[in-house]
Structure formats: structure tokens, C-alpha cells
TrEMBL record:
Species of the source: Muriicola marianensis
Sequence ranges assigned to domain Nucleotidyl transferase in this UniProt record: 1-211
Function: Catalyzes the formation of dTDP-glucose, from dTTP and glucose 1-phosphate, as well as its pyrophosphorolysis.
Protein name: Glucose-1-phosphate thymidylyltransferase
NCBIfam families: rmlA
Gene: rfbA
InterPro entries: G1P_thy_trans_s, NTP_transferase_dom, Nucleotide-diphossugar_trans
SUPFAM superfamilies assigned: Nucleotide-diphospho-sugar transferases
Keyword Electron transport attached: no
Taxonomic lineage of the native organism: Bacteria, Pseudomonadati, Bacteroidota, Flavobacteriia, Flavobacteriales
Protein keywords: Magnesium, Metal-binding, Nucleotidyltransferase, Transferase
Entry EC number(s): 2.7.7.24
Reported cofactor(s): Mg(2+)
Catalytic activity: dTTP + alpha-D-glucose 1-phosphate + H(+) = dTDP-alpha-D-glucose + diphosphate
Protein family per UniProt: Belongs to the glucose-1-phosphate thymidylyltransferase family.
Length: 260
């Protein structure tokens, strides 16, 4: 599914790649798994390594740590939702600072209507003191966006939580477990950072409009995985040219060829 001029999945992939993450497990439903494999391959063309697993039923975000336990092994791990877009100055540096967590690291994003989201309240040291899921009376205006960093304990924690009333393994329960251990940190996304959740028809349209306006005004792409791979040093200029050449007729390839 496209968001303006590129597939939706490019945006979260680009975010992970900007963080310096090159080994990525893509978890999809059974019906769409082959489409993602055809689109992205094994990631080697981007200097990355893509693996794939299937979530048989919508059993919750936290099930990703059970499905991906073998992939994670003894490493620390980041999780990003496939329909979330992040964009803003300083974002790359912030992400890279959070890739070695001792516990869990989540983000706070100031919103006008926090009752629609998971809401975090925290102290002056950046330690979370409470997490509420869609509270009627939010304790703060900081929603929790769909990107998370955890140490390896997350796999053990995921094995201990039980399904919620919705029948899902909730990422909020993972975060609360870290909170109870006193090991949950909150990084605040600057007010100049955009967080877009494209999970509804209206938000998908708004995201496409946002990307279009920024790209057409600045002449720069948002969420270009080929550009990120090149800028991060994952691929060479010649390898970028190989990726761009088949895309010349769309204009996207010309953009890639003109990167400095």
C-alpha cells in the first residue's frame, strides 16, 4: 500500500535503518507475506539483512517477541509498527542514542487528544511513573508512538504476559513490566518531529498529503530506504545507481541518481 510515492513499509524500514539497524525481521499476516518478500527481497541490495515470519492471527503487538525469539537470540531489539511514519530534524541522532538500552526505552509525543492513545507520565529524570491505555482522564499529554527499544529481557517478559480483554498480547503490558522493574526510560520527541499513524483511511490520506507537501517543497524524499542505505554507508554510489536505474521512468530513480 503506498503512502504518496512509495510503499508504506519503506517509512518504518527507513527509520530503523537510520538508527543503524541492519538486521530486520518483518512480521506479516499469511496473505501478504509473499508480497513483502517480492518487494524487499533479502535486503542485501540495501546492505541489510531482511528475514520474514508470519503472525497467523492478530494476537497483539507483543506477540512479535514470541514470533521473533529465534531471530532476536541474545541481542537487544527494536520494534516499530509497520504503519508508523516518523520525520524530523535530530531524529536520526536520537534513535542512534537509544539502540543500547538497559531495560526499555519508549517515546513520548505531545498530542492534543491523549485519551486516544497509550499515555505515559514521567518524572524530571525521564523515568516513566505511569502508563495508561486510552485513559478517560489522561495524566499527561504524551502519547506513546509505535517505536520501542528493549534489552533482551523483553523475550522473557513477553512469555509471561497474558492476553487482554481484547484477546491480544499488549505492548503496554511489556512497558508496564519494565516500569515495575524501574527500568523504563522515556525519550521525548521534539515538537518539530512528525509522528503519523496511517492505520485509518483518514490518517492514511493525511500522511500522504504531509509527505507530498514536504517532498515537493524541499525536493527531498521522506522514507527512501535506498537513500538511507547510501547516506548510512550501507551501499556504494555504484550500488545506488544499480537500484536507481530501473526506476528512472518514475522520477524516483532520477532522484536517487542525483544524490550527492
Amino acid at each position: 500500500m503506498p503512502v504518496y510515492d512509495k510503499p508504506m513499509i519503506y517509512y518504518p524500514l527507513a527509520t530503523l535503518m537510520q538508527a543503524g539497524i541492519r538486521e530486520i525481521l518483518i512480521i506479516t499476516n499469511p496473505q501478504d507475506a509473499h508480497l513483502f518478500k517480492e518487494l524487499l527481497g533479502d535486503g542485501s541490495q540495501l546492505g541489510c539483512q531482511f528475514s520474514y515470519e508470519v503472525q497467523e492471527a492478530p494476537n497483539g503487538i507483543a506477540e512479535a517477541f514470541l514470533i521473533g525469539a529465534g531471530f532476536i537470540g541474545k541481542d537487544k531489539v527494536a520494534l516499530i509498527l509497520g504503519d508508523n511514519i516518523f520525520y524530523g530534524a535530530g531524529l536520526e541522532d536520537l534513535l542512534q542514542k537509544n539502540t543500547d538500552p538497559d531495560g526499555g526505552i519508549i517515546y513520548g509525543y505531545h498530542v492534543q487528544d491523549p485519551q486516544r492513545y497509550g499515555v505515559v507520565d514521567f518524572n524530571e529524570e525521564g523515568n516513566a511513573v505511569s502508563i495508561d491505555e486510552k485513559p478517560a482522564n489522561p495524566r499527561s499529554n504524551y502519547a506513546i508512538p509505535g517505536i520501542y527499544f528493549y534489552d533482551n529481557e523483553v523475550v522473557k517478559i513477553a512469555r509471561t504476559i497474558t492476553p487482554s480483554k481484547r484477546g491480544e498480547l499488549e505492548i503496554t503490558d511489556i512497558n508496564r513490566a519494565y516500569l515495575q522493574k524501574g527500568k523504563l526510560k522515556v525519550s521525548i520527541l521534539d515538537r518539530g518531529t512528525a509522528w503519523l499513524d496511517t492505520g485509518t483511511f483518514s490518517s492514511l490520506m493525511q500522511a500522504a498529503q504531509f509527505v507530498a507537501v514536504i517532498e515537493e517543497r524541499q525536493g527531498l524524499k521522506i522514507g527512501s530506504i535506498e537513500e538511507v542505505a547510501y547516506k548510512m554507508g550501507y551501499i556504494t554510489k555504484n550500488e545506488l545507481k544499480d537500484l536507481a536505474t530501473p526506476l528512472l521512468r518514475s522520477g524516483y530513480g532520477e532522484y536517487l541518481l542525483n544524490l550527492k
